[in-house]
């Protein structure tokens, strides 16, 4: 974090431990000052014994300690670090223990003749709250991908949501189990495709660090390039320059997406083909002709390409979040 004595990282770091590893193990968090020339400066450290974390999650401000080989007590002069640390233990049983549950979940897909409202999937759909829906969708997609039934699962969930939708303008706009499952499915099968399409232009936006602003209220006219020696850029010049840059970036993104049809994973294409068919069945009138396309673009653009452009780190396109100027662009 550059140019501040009070950095905020807002990072979530996860470390996997093997069974039986914690014991006397220590989690050590160190803070360093990076220098272009010479050695980096050690600023302090905080340590947590893992066996104590397993009993009580730890959260709060912690005084930074000096280097382990240093005996002097700095009495809090090194500053403090705010952290939340917890140890989560997952017990994973052999596959056969999960078979009854998997059989129950896949039953409506494998035996579609049974009443759909009383199936485990239908009940799960009704009882999941907004907070847990993302987790449930992620687990369901993984289970059904493992069984080769992910596309039928999506068809089952989207068909049920279509049956409840009377206004095509609201179709798949809520964060329902169907919407979340399609979202997680696209991430699971389409991430390499997403990277191939978006990474070149996203990397360029990060590396070029151009100043782009179209809102007159937010323009910083003294920050742009100087025009000879007459002073700062005018508002019109910043606007025109920004517009040209944005159009260039957007054209590259749209061209990359439109030109990637053949690279789109087969599973995604099959899922969207099925979705289109179901939407046509539910809204057959000529006035709803475009709904079949909106339903697909709502997922492909609003829940896949657009979020990846806005938050590249969450989709693995970049290792770090964008700094403010790049984020604004």
UniProtKB/TrEMBL annotation:
Signal peptide bounds: none
InterPro entries: C2_dom (IPR000008), C2_domain_sf (IPR035892), Ras_GTPase (IPR039360), RasGAP_CS (IPR023152), RasGAP_dom (IPR001936), Rho_GTPase_activation_prot (IPR008936)
Domain C2 intervals: 1-62
Coiled-coil annotated residue ranges, if any: none
Residue ranges annotated for the Ras-GAP domain, each copy included: 132-329
UniProt keyword list: GTPase activation
One GO molecular-function entry: GTPase activator activity
SUPFAM superfamilies per record: C2 domain (Calcium/lipid-binding domain, CaLB) (SSF49562), GTPase activation domain, GAP (SSF48350)
Protein name: RASL1 protein
Species the sequence originates in: Formicarius rufipectus
Organism taxonomic ancestry: Eukaryota, Metazoa, Chordata, Craniata, Vertebrata
